[in-house]
Design a protein that fits this description.
The protein has about 100 residues and is an alpha/beta fold. The chain has one domain: Glutaredoxin (3-Layer(aba) Sandwich). It contains four helices and five strands. It has a five-stranded mixed β-sheet, with helices on both faces. Strand 4 and strand 5 form a beta hairpin. Helix 2 packs across helix 4. The longest helix has 15 residues. The protein is globular.
Amino acid sequence: MAIHDIDEPSLQNRLHAEGGKAAVFFFTPLCGTCKIGERMLEIAEAAGISVPVYKLNINYAPRLREHWQIASVPCLVLLDNGRPLQKEYAMKAVDHIYLMLK
C-alpha cells in the first residue's frame, strides 16, 4: 500500500466505485506543515495501516473543498463509503495518525 497521488475526478470515481473506508490528505505543494504531515502518513503507512490513503492538492479540488468544507491544509479526511467521518487538521503524532487509520 502507498499514498496515492490523485486528482479530484479520479478520487470521486474511485470512492463511488469502491466504497469502504479511505482517507484523503489535502495539501498544497509549498506548505511546510503539509510536508511534515505527509511524512507522518508515510511512516504510518509503512507501519501497516489498513485504510487506503490518497493525497490531493487542494488547489485542484474545488468541489470537494467546498462540499466537505475543508478550512485549511494540511487536512486528513477519514471517509466511510465516500462520506467524511472525521477531519484532522493537526497532525499531532505518527502514533495518533496510525491509530486513526488502523
